[in-house]
Write the structure tokens for this entry.
Amino acid sequence: MNTTYQPEHEETLDPEDWDLARGLGHRMIDDLIDYWKTVRDRPVWKRPPDEVKARFHEPLPEKPQGMQQAYRDFQDLVLPYPKGNIHPSFWGWVDGTGTVFGAFAEMLAAGMNSNLGVADHSAVYVERQVISWSKEMLGFPGTASGILTSGASEANLIGLLVARNSVANTDVGNYGMGNAEGRLTLYGSTESHSSLIKAADILGLGKEAFRKVPVNENFQIDLGALRAAIVRDREQGHVPFCIVGNAGTVNTGAIDPLDELAELARAEKLWFHIDGAFGALAALLPEYENKIRGLSKADSLAFDFHKWLYVPYEAACVLVRDAEKHHHALAVSADYLNPQARGMAAGPEPLSNYGIQLSRGFKALKVWLSLKEHGIDKYRRLIRQNIHQARYLGSLVEASQKLELLAPVSLNIVCYRYNPGGFDEDALNRLNQTLLAELQERGIAAPSYTVINGRFAIRVANTNHRSRREDFHRLVQASLAIGEAILCARPAEAVV
């Protein structure tokens, strides 16, 4: 036996002083509660100054600095300069707000440090129950399968992977895309999320395999154009395999005609996947039953908990109607992972056989505890509140002579611009780019942006449980005041 290495003492990363650690932990929680409680008193966003950014170029620490100094660095360098999405006036992209108890759940999950890929332990059953609740919420059968993911991007990738392997005319799962007979193609509207294009690339199909189908005046997929694209591809020897429907597009919140898409997919023997990153959860509202009733007919469905269920990042889910196809697409046998008759590996089917990750964090705990804390009915009320707030903002825009609505408010997204009249489209685009930057840099509000029919739009996506009507009124007033100030300071053609 080699006994050459004999350290003076064996080390650990546990605290040397547990009481000191306890005191710091209590202080961190107290500081966070104060931070949440006073969120309205701060700007929604503040750019990190150059001297702070420079601190992130310091060399790798060789010697210990200790917990207290490390926490001071967090307080000085990180906490004052957040993205801002816990703020009541943050409506950028489609970022969720998080909750207090959800953050506590993250602490508990980190404390347990569970790896959910393999083994029989309680965290696995928590995730399995969250998946069961998800099926119940969204009308999927109890026999369906699912797995929690980092976000809808990963959930979309898994859904399309199962679709590709299930519908392809050869076993591409085992033999690769080079063995496929003809180019595989899939279809979604021009409003589809970029993650679907990226998924097509990752799956070896190529970005161009995702056929972007035109939309109608309500930004919904054009069914006639979709049918024509499928026919055209088949005539050219390609192999259509999947239709993607949008339950709430990222640009405008438009909901595709999901029922009709489901019928078309069945008739054409194609997989039907729905990207419902945030909009799928509108299915919880009875008043959206007709608009979104095709949701339960999907072969696979991707959605986020960290958007419209306000769970802290990261937490999303993919549901797959046919559990056997889901398992077949992702399960891999290995001697060190195969189930055993007894012991730790004698539990349920490993979650890793339904997803991309083997090492998997305990993201299900914050979903499980949050649903227990509030109950699904409160989430229904908050989703409905966000939709009504978006409609209120839309009405304020329409009531103003100098603001212009650029798309119908079909869900929780409002796209508008400042338009005082008398300027061409290029000038208006520059003007609104400047206006948006002013809103953000002054810390007043944080919408994001998109382009609607060539027109730069200030885009408000409301998945914020802290927002009030007064916040949207303030946004409108600030948009008008800043727009007027920009025009008074310089002509629109000079705005950059």
Observations:
- The chain has three domains: 18-82, 105-374, 378-494.
- The CA atoms of residues 190 and 214 lie 6 Å apart.
- The radius of gyration is 25 Å.
